[in-house]
Specification:
By secondary structure, the protein is of the alpha/beta class. It has 6 helices and 8 strands, in the order βββαβαβαβαβαβα. α2 links the parallel β4 and β5.
């Protein structure tokens, strides 16, 4: 029986008339895929209820208006809070205030499980999340959200283990990928980390970045993409959907 921990990071640009919503019909939801995220509060209509959705309060824009209404009224059990806030000029102090005033009531009044802000694995991200976690120790998140980008699988595992040891929280790795440009290296990293996280009982869920037609910037590796420009899936996406363990 498959271990279902792999969250499909389905870019919002895949949705709509200018996107490739039909590609969702090619996703294997009967294997290792646990859920779908699009970094937004709204559910991609092409999901059609075939997997749980992970709504996200991406940044401050989602704390009011229609996005906040969707967050408040979602029937989904897990809510993500802030995506790399340290890169958006949001202080840990302000985020902790929002956490206590708006986010924690979603758990106390609606029974939602809450994911901490997911910060980068660089020094700035780690300083930010340390500050935040200290400020919310009275109302700790249900899951520690993490991002990891790099080229060394052993270093990635060491980082995950260190964060779990430091905060003693179950972890959701909401973004992870190799940034190596070599396809064989990317496959090695992906297989090592996926197989490791599948076997780590303290890793609740993880998402490899990302299922989109074009890389969003020059930081991420084209070799790590899960979708081709025409909307078809890459070999790496097929391995994440079908293979467990993944062979490198």
């Amino acid at each position: 029986m498959a271990v279902k921990k792999r969250c499909l990071l389905w870019d919002y640009t895949n949705t709509g008339d200018s996107g490739v919503p039909w590609a969702m019909d090619k996703v294997n939801f009967d294997g290792t895929i646990s859920s779908v995220s699009n970094w937004n509060a709204w559910v991609p209509p092409e999901l059609k209820g075939r997997a749980p959705f992970r709504p996200m309060v991406h940044l401050e824009a989602q704390l009011s208006g229609n996005d906040w209404d969707m967050i408040q009224n979602t029937d989904q059990p897990i809510i993500h809070f802030f995506n790399e806030p340290e890169r958006a000029g949001i202080s840990a102090e302000h985020a902790a205030d929002v956490w206590h005033n708006q986010i924690v009531p979603l758990r106390e009044q609606k029974g939602k499980q809450l994911v901490s802000p997911s910060c980068s694995n660089d020094d700035a991200g780690q300083a930010w999340i340390a500050d935040f976690m200290e400020r919310v120790s009275d109302k700790a998140p249900d899951y520690l959200g993490l991002h990891y980008y790099g080229t060394d699988g052993n270093a990635a595992i060491q980082f995950l283990e260190g964060m779990h040891s430091k905060y003693s929280q179950p972890i959701i790795v909401s973004e992870i990928a190799s940034i190596d440009r070599d396809g064989a290296s990317v496959l090695g990293f992906t297989s090592q980390l996926a197989n490791y996280m599948d076997g780590a009982d303290w890793v609740y869920e993880y998402g490899f970045f990302g299922c989109m037609r074009q890389p969003p910037d020059n930081f991420v590796s084209p070799a790590a993409q899960l979708m081709n420009p025409d909307g078809s899936f890459t070999d790496l996406m097929d391995k994440l959907m079908y293979d467990q363990p993944i062979q490198s």
